[in-house]
Amino acid sequence: MSKPIYFSFHWKFYFSVAFLLLVSLFGLQACQKAPADNKGLSAPVNDIPRLASGKPDFSGIWEATSAADYDLEPHSNRKDAPPGAGIIEGKYIPYLPEALEQRKKNFAARETLDPAVKGYTLGVPRGIYYPEPFQIFQREKDLIIVHQFGHSVRTIHTNNTDHPKDPYDWWLGDSRAKWDGDTLTVDVKHFNGKTWLDRSGNYHSDSLHVVEKWKLIDVNTLEYTATLEDPKVYSRPWTLSVLLHRHREKDFQLIEDYRFTLEYDEHYPPRPPVQ
Amino acid sequence: MRHKLAEWVAGRSAVVTGMITLGLVAAVTAHKVNAQGGGIQIERSFPAIESGDWTGPRLADGQPDVEGHWSNTIANHNNFTDPQGGIPNDPNPRPADAGPRDTRAPSRVSDPADGQVPLQPWALAKVKEFQVGFHDPVKPEYIEPLARCAPGGIPKSLYWHGYEISQYPGYVLFQFNSGTRIIHLDNKPHLPENIKLWNGDSRGHWEGNTLVVDVANHNGKALFGRSGEFISENGKIQERYIFNSDKSRYNYVAVITDPSVYTRPFTVTIPARRYTDKDTPNGWHFEVEPATHAGADLILEHYERICAENNGGFGITAAQK
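Predict the joint structure of the above. Result:
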């Protein structure tokens, strides 16, 4: 008698556990769906972070894992670069004939001419796929990008302002952006022409005009594309794209990298006389 | 580029000669500086602000809202302990810098009472040597590193032009004229101690109206000004940014400790005020431009501040030497 009762109790127990498990699974799913539904947005990607306004929140520390900075174009391995399939739509940069000659000269002298070797600000778009992290600080009115390399700061304005009427030439250009659904489209111009696109000598002039598109494809991944137009150097606009990954390591932070000070670092601070 | 030109005018370097094209820009900047009347040195004294409750506006994450454009009210980095007294040993002193000491703003060193950095004898000798060498930089160490585009460091960044403070959940960001500082508001540990940085590694938290920041990993290279006082890579800095609740001013009060350079810890006090769209843009304290937009309201923004190739006045002298 006791045995069947015991068995029956056991069976009921398992049934209850399974039932509870199912209920909680449905409940959990409902909870996960709720925030996205409550946003009331037309086409939310999925559960990406958002600002109070509902715009995507790109805040975080990001870095490309691509080997793009070695050479944007497809290339075999060489002493100073791993092989890479390139990140350009159509594989190659459509240089004008004279510009292609300049690019070859740059390549030959890349070890000394690359502005990054001197520690200069990397520019746009190079700073984005250069193998050092950058941090996005985002508010409603702007996104401030702090690059670890040089700690250079770029402001992307999202407050319906236009390019200055009386601009200077800047290392990072002037960035004005608008939201197109969940995609941030950034118009960048007024560059100084002193930066390169990678360490293999791909370059641009001060007539560069860049249109960037930034979009979260999941919580931890940004899809970044840049279309470059420069009538002095390219025969037509061309587009590159990379994925940017969120740094999630414990206690990860930017570490100041003012590379250009290294040549005089040794002279400071004063030292006590040798005893 | 432009801030260096403004500095030529305000700090009167002799290098202007020959820089004809740039001179035009300098003239425009000088006009902007003079337009406000006071130049860089706005105050000779300033009010104390007590640490206490914050009753002003808050950001969504609960931080006191102190965002905006700020600048010190006393002087630039010509002289750390006699801020309005001109560069020590200047062969061409400005008449305005002369006169009895008590007619000028007090030392930035608020403790000890004599207003001097309590330097060990060897460090004092180095400072005296710098104060002579600065005017004829025959050795690279006589060049004030800011002239070579180095970050202003701590505390000099707070009296080198105006700067912008912005705040985010977990962070306070300082965009200085030369250099950028990220204050982390979480409690993550400091970087490993052999990593040394121009602006150090900062951990902060809010106590009422006061942002309390602990600075480690300082590289000691920035110098405190053209008067040559310095800290070493062994130094620690405990900062208190004490804001008044109407968000118009704050006083920076920092205790600097470095047993390898000083005989005792000392306190630095630097007053600052906020600039808003009611203020006239100014080529030194409030370096902003009106944004282009369709609306009627005034939106002021600052342009990129990047100095990387000794493109300023003092840098040119240095490079020629």
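The mean pLDDT of chain B is 86.
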